[in-house]
Amino acid sequence: MRDKVTIRLFRGNANGGTETDYEVTTFPGMVVLDAIHQIQGTQDSTVACRWNCKAAKCGSCSAEINGRPRLMCKSHVEDFADSNGLIRVHPLKTFPLIKDLVTDVSINYRTAEKIPPLTVSEDIPRPFKMQQIDVERIQEFRKCIECFLCQDVCHVLRDHNRKDGYFGPRFMIKIAALSMHPLDTGNRLRQLKEEGGIGYCNITKCCEEVCPEHIHLTDNGIIPLKERVADYYYDPLKILIRKIVGPKKK
Amino acid sequence: MASYSANSREEGRAPLPMENRELDWWLMPLLTVVVLTLFGVYTTFRAFENNYYLYTKNGANYLSPFYSPLLPIAWSLHLPLFGLKMVSPAIYILIFPLAFRLTCYYYRKAYYRSFFWDPPACAVAEPRADARMKYTGERKFPFILQNLHRYAFYAAVVIVIILWKDTVDAFIWTGPDGSHHFGIGVGSIVFLVNIILLSLYTFSCHSWRHLIGGKHNCYSCSCVTRSSYGIWKKVSFLNHNHALWAWVSMLSVWFTDFYVMAVASGMFKDIRIL
Q: Which of A8, A166, A197, B151 is the most buried (most CB within 10 A)?
């Protein structure tokens, strides 16, 4: 392992900035967030970065390391230093930049507010009793730590900037967790198709590749939702049956 | 040290180039383009060739998957430069497996990335900046038709059943006196491996996974949903490797057709094992 690595860090705000090199002393098990802390503590206390748990559970320290969205606290320095000992650290590029590595991710919270919460019939006795086979599918989606790396890498939001038309992968699995809930009575298909814009997703699976919790966002979340939308809006046979026998009660 | 100023980035984003991955991200898209293009060229050639698709020498019974089933249809077209030409049955047979693969959730990922560069790789920007805001995903024609993948799946199931029959036939040899008996040739093994891989690909389909149980919200509510849960779990296990089955089944069906073409045209001989 190298004794020192160079962190090439973006310093600036939305109006402009520079990539500045900082040399840091390494130690066994050092992660990129440690390197940023070392820079803050010994070289430049004005470096801005958001962090909290340093255990890959709070989802705060999202950044782009060597051009790929990652959690800084989960990225070992020795894995990312190139042959010259250089690591490039940039802020998330899909969200408005506040300073250095800190971006404004509040659009995600505004999107979350648009999704109706779990809707359960008043007839169901409380507290809810559920079977394991009914909840294990949606437990995977509950692992989400809201680091928004999937939102950052999603090309619909990142490249095409269609935040007005597509909720993004994080909120697709939020809807999946509700839609597949055995007690939920809300019909979420219209929101998925219209406001949520599930049709924008072309399932290129980048969200799944960057997820630090290894959630199968597309295979287990978005694709099953697309199939449910297809059931209701696109399958001509099902549409015909529904017209003849009437809509199925959830 | 590189300096950046705010330019084309929207909504006050970091004034940085959209991608600066220095890794070999282009390798997978390039590989996908090369293999799918080669497969497309080979398949088109074979579909129009209308020859060397059946091998019956020495009692063998190998029918190319591109020409199966043998339909009692003989359409011909009068083409201005070529005269009267028979329409190859492969053209109207291959539509169904082609539709299944074209609308497959895995292949969609593969060709959206490789051919449409939408995106070319994760965190790598689409090169056509003018097309950025014109993106409609799968909301408009023709890509909205991807929502009918389940119908392509239904057709693929029929094709798989037919190919299983062809595989059984590949193990039944015809003697000089016209009697039928069990036998194994190298081609029989090729057919068996091919149909197993095609079945794994077909029945690991995301649409099938939805139809067989994924559509239910409450598995514990009835014995029917409990049963469908069990099948859904097994399909989910297969589905985990859907991309792998997609590739190996494509290569196997390619090789199977090539094998039949090679033995039927005399390029090499089929070896009888048993």
A: A166
Contacts of B28 in chain A (CB under 8 A): none
CA distance B61 to B65: 12
Question: Which residue has 């046979």 as its token pair?
Answer: A237
Query: What are the sequence ranges of the domains in chain A?
Result: 4-103, 106-245
Residue ranges of domains in chain B: 24-204+241-265
> pLDDT tens digits, residue range A172-222?
999 999 999 999 998 899 999 999 999 999 999 999 999 999 999 999 999
Structure tokens given for A130: 């559920």
Q: Which residues have CB under 8 Å from B70's CB, separation 6+?
A: B54, B63, B89
Question: Which amino acid is located at B69 in the chain?
Answer: P
- Within 8 A of A179 by CB-CB distance, chain B residues are 217
Please state which CATH class domain A4-103 belongs to: alpha beta
The rounded distance, in Å, linking the Cα atoms of A18 and A92 is 15
What pLDDT score does B19 carry? 62
Give, in order, the Cα–Cα distances in Å from A248 to each of A83, A114, A231, A244, B147: 61, 25, 12, 11, 21
Q: Is B19 in CB contact (< 8 Å) with chain A? A: yes
Nearest-CA distance from B171 to chain A in Å? 38
Interface test mutation site (partner A, options B11, B111, B141, max chain A beta carbons within 10 A): B11
Q: CA torsion, points A173, A213, A31, A147, in degrees to nearest 10?
A: 20
Average pLDDT over every residue of A242-248: 84
Please answer yes or no on whether A180 and B217 come within 8 Å at the CB atom: yes
pLDDT of res. B24: 79
Q: Which CATH class is domain A106-245?
A: mainly alpha
**Residue A162: closest CA among B119, B133, B118:** B133
Sole residue written with tokens 């507290």: A127
| Closest Cβ–Cβ partner in B14, B126, B219 for A133 | B219
